[in-house]
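[09:14] KT: can someone run the structure on this one? pasting the chain below
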Amino acid sequence: MEERAVKLIERARNGDAAAFDTLIRSHQDAIYRMARHVCAAAPGEADDVFQDTFVTAFKKLKKFRGDSDLKTWLYRVASNLCLMRYRKKAARPEVPILDRPDDEGNLRPADFPDAAPAPEEAARRKELTDAVASALAELPVDFRLVLTLRDVEGLSAEETAKILKLTVPAVKSRLHRGRLFLRDRFQARFAPEPA
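[09:31] RB: done, structure tokens below
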């Protein structure tokens, strides 16, 4: 770990909020991206995981031994939070929030408009985004974590194995199976119809 990071960690451990803020700023984008991809089925969960990661890091920073890079440790914290939320969510049914009536008075989910590209482009982007989110949501969370850390965050198999406490062969196996799963989902969804 670089000397600057070691000094910032030490200052943060001693209650220096500015030092902790500096540490957070250097890793917040990567942690949020990971949380957003792993929590693809429930985007609101990504915000909670993101916040909980840094709250947990603040509380447990004194226990951080420095055996790994701080980013690796934060990924581990975020991964554990994603897994805990996933398991908790799987154990309880979910009811969608319906908050806007349509023209007939039936309640439906609220729509949030995007910055408006051309309608055709917006439809194409939405279809692709929905397909990715849907496929990721169907992927078992163990595979989703590996796929996110390797393909989205660009971490090595060794780093991913360390974060998830797996062997490198297990990471490679989960990555391969996750990619096959996604490929099959996309082929099924976007394959041209037979003539």
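[09:33] KT: thanks! The longest strand covers residues 100-101.
[09:34] RB: yep, looked fine to me
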